[in-house]
Amino acid sequence: MGYIGESVRLFASPDTDADGQQVSNTWLIDGKPIDSALFTPTEARKHRVTLLQNDGQNAPNSIDSAVVEITPRDIPVIYPDYPKAIITGRSLSIDDIGISSDWKFQIGDRYDSRWTAGDVGEQELRLYWFNENEPVYFRSYPIQVKSPLTFDSTRTTLKINFTPANPEVIVNAPDLNRSSNEVRFTWYAEDGQIMGYGPQIELTLSEGENLFTVVAKDIDTKGSEAVETDLLIITE
Prior knowledge:
Elements: E1 8-9, E2 24-29, E3 32-33, E4 38-39, E5 47-54, E6 63-70, E7 85-87, E8 91-93, E9 103-107, E10 110-112, E11 114-116, E12 121-131, E13 134-146, E14 155-160, E15 168-172, E16 183-189, E17 194-197, E18 200-204, E19 209-218, E20 221-222, E21 227-235
Parallel strand pairs: 7-13, 7-20, 14-21
Antiparallel strand pairs: 1-4, 2-3, 2-5, 5-6, 8-11, 9-10, 9-12, 12-13, 15-18, 16-17, 16-19, 19-21
């Protein structure tokens, strides 16, 4: 018996009865008739297959039957190790996600060992399992496709009233094309010292110009590259 998703052709023989009368064949799967002698199981469980043959003579022995039980094999279980998100234009291979080579990505009407992210938004990784070079069964997995990470501008300037007795100020990271909870932020002083992390930070300012660099990196997004912007705070 084959696997789930593989079609099984049922054969009836002979096509005449003991009296030489031509017989018609009716197939039943688990007691329900099917339209043809082709059956495609969708569950890995036992199925009762019944063949009814009728010579059409309306005699007590005109109908005969035979019963067999078949159990299709289940598809191999996989646990693909893939990212929650990927940048558009970036690719994943079967090796990247840690599954065997008898699985392939469905891409339109073809199958390939590599998939490239296209349109931005919620997409589907559809993986087909091949048996004897034929696609038999698929499993699908959601993946978020994102545009490349960018800040809205290369430099942001803020003007803040300066109070020498209280030089600390809480500042938000400049805007970018993501929700801040999707991104890891690192703040740097002009001399390269790390000032802190997160979308919001408390900074100690001095009078005049205070220049900081904010670096952002997508969280759990394949193919994303860190981006940075300058934040100039002028105290008055």
